[in-house]
Amino acid sequence: MKKYIGIIVAEVEEMQAVRDLMSKVHEISICNLKIFKGKIGRKSYLLVRSGVGKVNSARTTQILIDKFCLDYIINLGSAGALNDNLNIGDIVIGERLVQHDFDVTAFGRDKGYIPDTGKFFESNSKLVEKYKNAQISNQKVITGTISSGDIFCTDTAMKEKIKKNFDADCVEMEGASIAQVCSLNNIPFIVIRSISDTPNGKNHIDFNKYLKIASKNCAEIVKISFA
Questions:
Q1: Core-most of 4, 130, 173, 192, by most CB within 10 Å?
Q2: What is the tens place of the pLDDT at every residue in 90-106?
């Protein structure tokens, strides 16, 4: 059976950036999801836009796993910087993922701890090694911790809290839920994020301004690594 690499994105701009790299594209529809089959270099890919948030991304991940034979799953997209050394367009390769808004501390657990699965989800180490060596002009590529939650983080106090609690480098809304579903299904995964903004009370403006740059850089790292 043919194996695919699944790429999950949340935003239209992120999808278009990857779609522009693909050849021999064929569109199919499954469960109201538009899925693009195609090639990047010599590899066969499935590209799908989940929509924003953990429920949408988890649902989409499970559909891909159920319907296709997958080599692994990549989650690409934008993120807000928590690491002060990151600038617009820089790349974070998620060595580990955490859901910063999951809270069962009332039962004596750490913030982010999920019963039966734990606190952190580890990306596939071979994929981390492969992607972290990519070079993008004038942009840093680091490995680190990516935090996810169903909140577009604009508050500086929340930014500092997430950074402190999880030693996180960036914050977004899908990666850790994709990581959880992949882990439960024993599917290798990697989450790659490019910085579009920094939580500062006005970062929704930066997000809209720089989303295309972040999307392009995430797509470029796939092209560099696998073309």
A1: 192
A2: 999 999 999 999 999 99
CATH code of residue 168: 3.40.50.1580
Tell me, what DSSP letter sits at residue 3? -
Query: Who's near 42: CB < 8 A, 6+ residues apart?
Result: none
Question: In which element (H, E) is residue 160 found?
Answer: helix 156-166
Q: 11-60: per-residue pLDDT in tens?
A: 998 989 999 999 999 999 999 999 999 998 888 999 999 999 999 999 99
> Count of domains in the chain?
1
Positive or negative torsion for Cα 209, 214, 220, 222:
negative
Question: Which sequence positions are flagged as catalytic?
Answer: 14, 197
Tell me the residue ranges of DSSP E strands in 69-173: 70-81, 91-99, 121-122, 141-148, 170-172
